[in-house]
Design goal:
single chain, 317 residues, alpha/beta, Rossmann fold, 8 strands, globular
Length: 317
């Protein structure tokens, strides 16, 4: 069996027999997935990852897990909504990973699969969530989808061998905004009757819908009401943090070319003002969409974030 590499045609990835049950959900961008399968990881660099060898490694591990049935895909109520379950069981805690994509896509190849595989290696169960994007991204659809994913995970916890207490949400870019929004009382999990995560693990998150927003994310999420100040405030995380907000680990490049670094700074200010435990790491560089950030100034962030998740309360910067 020939291993996947960065030169492997994605058609071969999508149509390998181990991925038959999940082939329609493997590739992104969704809008181009039919055409994407005729390229390779290397030619799709702008979509897939900073470190393509790590993505290929993750796909090879996923292939092995699919054979062992420790990797499955579960569809939910909408065609584009579901999740990949990366299971090691052992009644261990889990992380739900929410990839970004500006609410126009779900970049699971860069910010989902490699992260989930690494979490397994660190001893944790992991799930990678897919939510409605593009024309179907209007609020509260993405929040509804994450709530549905979590509800299904909780209901299958015994079957999967996972511990639901003290779980974490991990989100990147617009997926970071989605994860962070689920921890608010206004539009988050309390409104769905679901428990808050113990910790948020956020990479270069979109935080505000105001002046320093990522306009593509705001336009997709708020649609025709993107200029509605009250709605902007409702979905601006820095305006919704309170004392009950989960502990939060976040990192972002100082010169992020996509999401202004003010987003992270605004969230830190809100967390500090409400005495919420946090750890913030501004990173040298101009990167965005780094995922695991292998080979960059942020390498090792996931190990540090997991340690923070498991630590006792403190505030550090």
């Amino acid at each position: 069996m020939k291993e996947f590499t960065e030169n492997t045609p994605l058609y071969r990835v999508r149509h390998c027999k181990e991925f038959a049950q999940m082939k329609d959900h493997l590739l992104n961008p969704y809008s181009l997935r039919f055409f994407a399968q005729f390229s390779s990881l290397k030619t799709g660099r702008y979509v897939f990852a900073n470190n393509l060898k790590d993505t290929a490694r993750a796909l090879n591990k996923m292939r092995e897990m699919a054979r062992e049935k420790t990797l499955v895909y579960r569809s939910l109520s909408h065609e584009a909504t579901g999740y990949f379950a990366f299971l090691i069981g052992k009644d261990g805690p889990f992380v739900l990973v929410i990839p970004g994509g500006g609410y126009h896509d779900v970049c699971s190849m860069a910010e989902g699969f490699p992260v989930a595989v690494k979490l397994n290696e660190l001893g944790y169960n992991a799930y990678v969530g897919l939510y409605r994007v593009g024309r179907e991204a209007r609020f509260p659809n993405p929040q509804d989808d994450v709530a549905e994913i979590l509800k299904d995970i909780f209901e299958r916890a015994e079957e999967d061998g996972v511990q639901t207490k003290g779980y974490a949400l991990c989100g990147f870019s617009a997926g970071g905004h989605l994860a962070a929004s689920m921890a608010t009382k206004t539009v988050g999990l309390p409104a769905y009757g679901l428990p808050l995560p113990k910790t948020l693990l956020l990479g270069y998150p979109v935080v505000t819908m105001g002046t320093f927003t990522h306009k593509g994310s705001r336009n997709a999420l708020l649609g025709k009401e993107k200029d509605n100040f009250k709605l902007q405030e409702k979905y601006s995380i820095e305006r919704q943090v309170d004392e009950s907000y989960p502990s939060t680990y976040l990192w972002q490049c100082i010169d992020d070319p996509a999401v202004p670094v003010e987003n992270s700074k605004m969230l830190v200010e809100a967390l500090r003002a409400h005495s919420v435990r946090y750890e913030y790491h501004p990173v040298e560089g101009k990167g965005h969409g780094w995922g695991l950030a292998i080979g960059t100034s942020a390498e090792g962030w996931l190990e540090r974030a997991v340690a923070f998740w498991q630590e006792s309360d403190c505030i550090t910067e």
